[in-house]
Amino acid sequence: AQSVTQLDSHVSVSEGTPVLLRCNYSSSYSPSLFWYVQHPNKGLQLLLKYTSAATLVKGINGFEAEFKKSETSFHLTKPSAHMSDAAEYFCVYSPGGYNKLIFGAGTRLAVHP
Amino acid sequence: NAGVTQTPKFQVLKTGQSMTLQCAQDMNHEYMSWYRQDPGMGLRLIHYSVGAGITDQGEVPNGYNVSRSTTEDFPLRLLSAAPSQTSVYFCASSRGTDRSSYEQYFGPGTRLTVT
User: Fold this and answer.
1) Which terminal CB of chain A, N or C, has fewer other CB atoms within 10 Å?
2) Taking CB atoms and an 8 Å cutoff, what residues of chain B touch A43?
3) Which residues numbered 25-44 in A keep a CB inside 8 Å of some CB on B?
4) Chain B hits for A49, Cβ within 8 Å
5) How far is A16 from chain B (nearest CA, A)?
6) DSSP string for residues in A35-100
């Protein structure tokens, strides 16, 4: 079955240190991949997306992600965490077709002073 | 543009009651969908629509009905509420089925409690 796995349910970092949120997906010929962020009691907002163009994708708020086909991974990174980055992050995978999206279970990012 | 709007923001129902969650978008998007969000499970697709008059089931459709009479509106009906339907419900829309159109725009959510 097609799936996406977020390898960490919780990640805790100090402000100013790098952020790494890990995501693996089940293999697909030509997937689309996304990262969404959800701040408390808010809807989801798109951070970045990969749709078969450049493998290093830059998003909003300094986040980026690298598509690695050989590893079926799409990890999200940021060089320096800010307190406002504290939120839940969802890796989302689309194997293709009518906008079918498969959500990971989410990673809750905590940022400490 | 208001984007995707949902009403109500909060709702408490008793078991067996019915209700409709409203969703509207003003971006002329073809594709609309409903998700439920439960702790530790991400979002799961309930129903979706690829255009007015066309709907289809997602991953967890049981207990829910939808219709799409206009491009703008996509209401979700709970026929007979059950405690298992306690969740946060999100409506989303996107421009179409093109790969470049895959960005989903989400509403703010409806928090539903069934007692």
Assistant:
1) N
2) 4, 90, 106-109
3) 32, 34, 36, 41-44
4) 102-103
5) 28
6) EEEE-TTS-EEEEEEESSS-SEEE-GGG-EEEEETTTTEEEEEESS--GGG-EEEEEEEE-SSSS-
Distance CA B85, CA B33 (A): 17
Structure-block tokens of residue A11: 């990640």
Which residues of chain B, if any, have pLDDT below 70? 97-101
- Alpha carbons B102 and A75: distance in angstroms, whole number: 19
Chain B partners within 8 Å of A46 (Cβ): 103-104
- Could B102 and A98 be called an inter-chain contact, meaning their C-beta atoms sit closer than 8 Å? no
pLDDT for residue B68: 97
- Smallest CA-to-CA distance from A39 within A84, A101, A104, A7 is with A84
* Higher-confidence position of A80 and A100: A80
Q: What is the mean pLDDT of chain A?
A: 90
CA distance B102 to A99: 6
Using DSSP bridges, classify how beta strands B54-57 and B43-51 pair: parallel, antiparallel or unpaired.
Answer: antiparallel
Share of chain A above pLDDT 70, in %: 96
What local confidence, expressed as pLDDT, does residue A100 receive? 72
Q: Are strands B10-13 and B110-114 parallel, antiparallel or unpaired?
A: parallel
Tokens in use for B38? 């439960």
Q: Tens of pLDDT along A22-39?
A: 999 987 777 889 999 999
Residue with tokens 């409709």: B20
